[in-house]
Each structure stands twice: as structure tokens, then as C-alpha cells.
Write a structure and sequence with these properties.
There is one protein chain. The protein is of the alpha/beta class and 515 residues long. The chain is 55% helix and 10% strand. It contains 24 helices and 10 strands. The longest helix is centred in the middle third of the chain and has 23 residues. The radius of gyration is 31 Å and the shape is globular.
């Protein structure tokens, strides 16, 4: 039985190395990638250590370039094959590489097509080391087809053994945010390079998780199924997953400059639960519209989804009421109704973004028809483009401010007074818009809008004003040191206190005390 052909990949660009790894089905064709190197010296060290049968080598690297590495390999009697990667198709580069012993060369622009696979497969590696090209439909592809059918709930054909253990597993849905922008960025290089890079980075993050299957489900979603049969503690498994996913998010963002959302199902049991797990994971992706986070776990909202029907019925009643208010021309109640509707969405945590946007569009069209106001006809289209509930809510409120008559809202005044009282009581703490909105049980955008409107300043400015007034009292009536006053009034440093005080009062705290 022939052994696998050992391959070493050498390129100074990590994304090119990732592209090489995914440009060809190495393992399925009898190859084994034994290492990677980012420069010439690293290549020589790995070649001595791993003794690869094939080196895929970049011709243009900083320091020792590919031609120099090739000459060193020749001097050290390296017995294997070398395929050169180049961005230069000028004959002199190729001729020099072939003269130094390269078996072939491939243009980097041709990696994802037939260039690299053809070059790799046509070489002679010796009688005991030949690539396996007989099985055209690899086990990996069979596995992906089988898993996709299970995810879609339409299985037919042969049963295939999966890499994860279906006795107990979870599904992870990974969504590429802003896929249209990513496609625009890769218009010249091609999305194949992006998907290969993405899959390679995900596999690198999963290298310590031997039991998993992964597939590109569609243009913006990747599915991962994980099991941990070597671990008995459910708590330990969840801790491992909750460490893994932030790491995964970080490396995708750092290497590809792409933001991703992750939805994680509960643990389920048996292959018949694959569809259920995938649906749970996808449902968690919807929460990215409701909350400013990247990772969402079904277990965190299990109770909400168990009461989903009840929550949606409550939401439906509010939607009927809102439409009645518009039809009956009780337009002064619409703002408050929209606020209650948005807060019910946040509380319930089960509404999907498509329904939210559709209802907002219906409300806009109903108001336009009732008011016979067509000044902002594209507002309904703008709603479709919003990526979060917060953005959608802000757009709706801005529109309502323009179209509905102004009135004095006693409830809104009361909410602003509550915010002011809370700030005066807790100014020593680390206050911000988020914690004020949470206290009022309102959205950040709505809290900010009503506070600005009724106070004539934003919340950070008001917090600073309260702190400075308290600091002035301490400066006048106590002998406390400046740094002590800074700490007591909620400033993180004496410097921040000095800057804020002088900006508001026009003089330093010491000058104020000495007046």
C-alpha cells in the first residue's frame, strides 16, 4: 500500500498559504501537508525536519528568495520535487527556477483553477508514493452531501459516517456579515479565494476539536457540527465552546477583516436531530439584529423560545393596535405605541428581522396614505437596508418626528426626569448611555433622542455636568485632595477630571478652590 506524499508549503503571505491549502483536495488525493513556512530559512529547517516529497515554494519572498532557497536545497541534495509559485510569468524567472531544479511552476493567479492540481498530479513521486486519483467523489464530499440533506430534512441515498459523534452534539451557524461588501472587495481576486481562506482559518481554530464536520451551507453561512465524546462534564464542554467561538471570531476579523455572527444550538442527541440543531443555530443568528453581540447561544434564551407563540401573539396584538391608532387618526399615540412594540421585541427575543422590517414598512405606508404625505417615498426601502433593530427604530422615530404633529408628552418628560434622578444618585459609578437605557427599560436610540430633546444636551454631557457641580461643592467645602475629589465624583483619573473641569468652568480645580 503506497504511503501519503508529504507536502511543505512556503510563502510569506499567510492568506496565500491558506489559499494553497484549499486550492486542492490534498488528503483525498493521497497527499499530507506536513508543514508551512513563511520564509526561506524556515523552509530549509522544515525540509530537514519533515523531509517532504514536495515543496510548494514562493519565488518572491523577503530575505532569502525562492531561487536562493532552491539553490540551497540543491546543495543539500534534497531528493524531492519543488513547484515554484510566482506572480511573474516572464521567461527569465521561470527558466532560472527550472535550471536550479524546480519540477514545475504555477502562477498564483491560477491557483484556484487547474494550475496547481495539474502540476501536483502530473509529477512522478516514486513507486511507493503515488497520488490516489481513482476516487473522484471523495469521502469528504459524500459527507457534505449527506450532512446537507440531514440539515434540510430531505435525506435520501446511502448513510455516511460523520466525523462528529451524533450521540451528543451541537450545531454552530456562522454568518458572514455584509456579504455584499465582501463580494465587492473580492471582485478581482474571486470569492473562491475568500471562501478557501475562511474555511482554512475556521479549520485552524478547530484544530484541537477532532470531532467536527464543517460545510459552506450557502454564500453567507457556514455550518459546523461539534461533539466532545472525550469529555463527560457538560459544564466543561460549554466552557470550551464559549472559549472557542470568541477565538474563532477574532481570527476571522484579524486575518480577513470580516465580521461574523455565530449562533449555537443546544446539545441534541441522534442524527435525526441534525435539522433541529441547525434550525436552532440559525434562529440565534436572528438575535444579531436585536442585540449588539457576535455570539448567541440557544441555551441562554431557551425559556423565551419555549414561550415563543405567546410572545408573538402579544406582539401581534400591539401591531393591530398600532394600525388602528393610525386608521382612527390617533396619531399622538403612535410614538408611544411604536416604543412599546420595540420593547416587546427586545423582551420576547424571538421575533425575526424580516417580520420586523415588513411591519415597519407597513406602518410607514399606512401613515403616508392616511396623511397623504409622499415627501419621503424611499423611507420604506431604507428600512430594508438597516442591520439592527436600533438602526430601524432610529429611522422610524426620525420619520415620525417629521410627519406627526408635536405634542408635550408627559410620559416622556417623566422618563427623562427618571434618567436625571438616576444620574444624580449614581454619578460616582461608571455611567453611560447603555446603563441609563437599561434602567429606563428603553432602547439606547430612543433614550438618547428624548434626553437630547428635553434637556438640550446628550447624556454624557449631563453626567459630566452633575459630576462637576458635585466637585465644586467638595472644592469649596472640604479640604480633600484633588485626586480624592476626582475619585469621589466618578472620574477614572485626575487628568480626566482636570480636563473636564476646565472645559466646563474655564479654570482648573485648583484655581477654582483658590478664588
Amino acid at each position: 500500500m503506497s504511503r501519503k506524499i508529504k507536502v511543505l508549503i512556503v510563502d510569506d503571505e499567510v492568506l496565500v498559504r491558506i489559499g494553497i491549502i484549499h486550492a486542492f483536495a490534498w488528503e483525498e488525493n493521497g497527499f499530507e501537508i506536513v508543514g508551512e513556512a513563511a520564509d526561506g530559512e524556515g523552509c530549509l529547517q522544515m525540509a530537514r525536519k519533515c523531509k517532504p516529497d514536495l515543496i510548494v515554494l514562493d519565488i518572491n519572498m523577503p530575505g532569502m528568495n525562492g531561487l536562493q532557497v532552491l539553490q540551497r536545497l540543491k546543495d543539500e541534495d534534497y531528493p524531492g520535487k519543488v513547484i515554484m509559485l510566482t506572480c511573474y510569468d516572464e521567461f527569465e524567472y521561470v527558466r532560472e527556477a527550472l535550471r536550479c531544479g524546480a519540477a514545475d511552476y504555477v502562477l498564483k493567479s491560477n491557483l484556484s483553477e487547474c494550475g496547481l492540481p495539474d502540476a501536483v498530479l502530473r509529477l512522478d513521486y516514486g513507486t511507493d508514493k503515488q497520488p490516489d486519483t481513482e476516487n473522484t467523489l471523495s469521502q469528504k464530499i459524500k459527507c457534505e452531501i449527506y450532512l446537507r440533506q440531514k440539515m434540510d430534512g430531505c435525506f435520501f441515498g446511502d448513510i455516511v459516517e460523520l466525523d462528529f459523534h451524533p450521540d451528543c452534539f451541537c450545531a454552530v451557524a456562522c454568518k458572514i456579515r455584509g456579504i455584499e461588501k465582501v463580494e465587492a472587495r473580492y471582485a478581482r481576486k474571486g470569492m473562491d479565494l475568500f471562501y478557501r481562506s475562511l474555511n482554512s482559518l475556521l479549520e485552524q481554530a478547530l484544530q484541537n476539536c477532532p470531532e467536527y464536520n464543517m460545510l459552506q451551507y450557502d454564500r453567507e453561512n457556514v455550518g459546523i457540527f461539534l461533539s466532545f465524546s472525550d469529555m463527560t462534564s457538560t459544564h466543561d464542554i460549554w466552557m470550551r465552546i464559549r472559549r472557542l467561538l470568541p477565538h474563532m471570531h477574532s481570527i476571522i476579523q484579524n486575518y480577513l477583516d470580516v465580521d461574523m455572527l455565530f449562533g449555537v444550538s443546544a446539545f441534541v442527541h441522534g442524527e435525526e436531530e441534525i435539522k433541529k440543531a441547525w434550525e436552532q443555530a440559525c434562529a440565534m443568528l436572528e438575535r444579531g439584529f436585536l442585540e449588539k453581540r457576535e455570539i448567541f447561544y440557544y441555551d441562554d434564551v431557551r425559556e423565551n423560545f419555549q414561550k415563543k407563540d405567546e410572545a408573538l401573539k402579544t406582539l401581534e396584538k400591539q401591531e393591530v393596535l398600532l394600525k388602528e391608532q393610525i386608521i382612527d387618526e390617533r396619531l399622538d399615540e403612535v410614538r408611544e405605541g411604536m416604543q412599546a412594540w420595540c420593547e416587546q421585541i427586545r423582551k420576547g427575543k424571538v421575533a425575526d428581522s424580516g417580520h420586523i422590517k415588513d411591519f415597519c414598512q407597513d406602518i410607514i405606508k399606512l401613515i403616508q396614505a392616511k396623511e397623504k404625505s409622499w415627501s419621503d417615498l424611499d423611507i420604506a426601502e431604507k428600512i430594508k437596508e438597516q442591520e439592527t433593530l436600533e438602526e430601524t427604530e432610529t429611522l422610524i422615530y426620525t420619520y415620525l418626528e417629521q410627519i406627526l404633529p408635536e405634542r408635550t408628552d408627559q410620559n416622556t418628560n417623566w422618563q427623562v426626569r427618571r434618567a436625571c434622578d438616576y444620574i444624580k444618585e449614581h454619578y460616582r459609578k461608571d455611567l453611560n448611555l447603555n446603563c441609563i437605557a437599561e434602567y429606563l427599560e428603553l432602547s439606547e436610540s430612543y433614550t438618547s433622542r428624548i434626553f437630547n430633546k428635553y434637556m438640550g444636551m446628550n447624556i454624557p454631557a449631563y453626567i459630566n455636568q452633575v459630576r462637576i457641580e458635585q466637585a465644586k461643592e467638595l472644592l469649596k467645602n472640604t479640604n480633600k485632595k484633588i485626586y480624592e475629589i476626582a475619585q469621589e465624583t466618578g472620574y477614572i483619573s485626575t487628568t480626566a477630571f482636570h480636563i473636564a473641569f476646565k472645559k466646563q468652568e474655564g479654570i482648573t480645580p485648583i484655581e477654582f478652590r483658590n478664588q
